[in-house]
Amino acid sequence: MRLVRYSYPSFRAVTPVFGGYQRSPWTGLETEIDRLFDSAVGTLGGASTTRFPVDLYEDANNTYVRAELPGVTREDINVEMTDGYLTIAAVRKTPAAEGKPEESFSFSRAVSIADEVQTDQVAAAYENGVLTVTLPKREEAKPKKISVAVK
After folding, report:
1. Nearest Cα residue to 88 out of 96, 76, 103, 105
2. Are 92 and 102 in contact (CB under 8 A)?
3. Confidence of residue 22 (pLDDT cuts 50, 70, 90)
4. How far is 96 from 107, CA to CA, in rounded Å?
5. What CA–CA distance (Å, rounded) separates 100 from 117?
6. How many DSSP H helices and E strands does the chain contain?
7. What is the pTM of this model?
8. Is the pLDDT of residue 147 over 90?
């Protein structure tokens, strides 16, 4: 959906402020609204989006990537680590209904992962529609407590 661009003055006031003119608070509003509608159309039907949001967080020992994938079976999820990227791909299948064939939607997301991760120790768990990938940190990348000696 696109908004019709109406002409309006680009400056609210004609009085100079610090040697220039005040900027209109509406500047850039059309592009933000267009972006909002484009993302809403992609997630609510119409052209489906192929990306999904992920949460990244960490503690002292691990980095975690969490993705909500409701309606996806464990067998339809693929998690790979290649060249410093964690790639999550999933397929959501909707069963055939009266007069409608089975539909499937593919989603994928690639996240850049720091070099401090032990790639051979990566684990993934899928429970209640939420995929959690655990990326353990290398021993040398973990924070170390340093004691301060009193002299």
Report:
1. 76
2. no
3. low
4. 20
5. 45
6. 1, 9
7. 0.60
8. no
